[in-house]
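Reopening this one. Same input as before:
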Amino acid sequence: CNSFFEGDAVHPEVAAAVDAFARALQGLGHTVEPARPGFATLDVVRPVMQLVATGTAMLLDALGAQRGRALDEAALEPVVRGAWRVGREISGIDYLRAIDALHRLGRQMAAFHERFDLLLTPTLAEPPATLGRFAMGNPDFIDYRLGPEGLWRYTPFTPLANATGAPSISLPVALSPAGLPIGALLTAPFGADALLLQVAAQWDAAVPSPPRIAPALP
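Same output, byte for byte:
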């Protein structure tokens, strides 16, 4: 799946790197076919966002209780304050709906893996972001995560493993023109960690890897 799960295109440099990695896997004897799991990206990232928010609220409330006083919200970064507020507003019913959505994703991925051993996607939808692009200064946590320029447009694929508990591995399959790694993400069925590591090790041994030392900064 070399696109967002609903078919939107990823950055051309990322798409080219993942296509080249797919060809490398074919050269190692694997069968690689285009396929999508059958859900939209927001079906994954929205319930994950709700759990992140409720988890943040639970943690910060617990820290306040541990200290014997409420935390000073002004001492928190704006996006963390936003997550705390959103988490407090999520009802028990909405929390259970998010859990149900994650369970549904797990069942959908189990059905996907009845036909396919592994799911191949990009790690990120774009080359690595510039410093400060996702700075924590946005007080609107939902916009920060799910807005038009939100985090989900940059990293739509990795939340799937968080949602389902499936093992995933990101491999540095290419370098961007700026000299930064572009990753391909392999996701295996739940419990199939060994299969994932075997394929990754096979590729790593057979294909020259990009440099593992970052270029010198200006």
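So the earlier flakiness isn't reproducible anymore. For the record, The helical segments are 12-27, 41-67, 78-89, 92-113, 141-146, 151-154, 159-164, 193-206.
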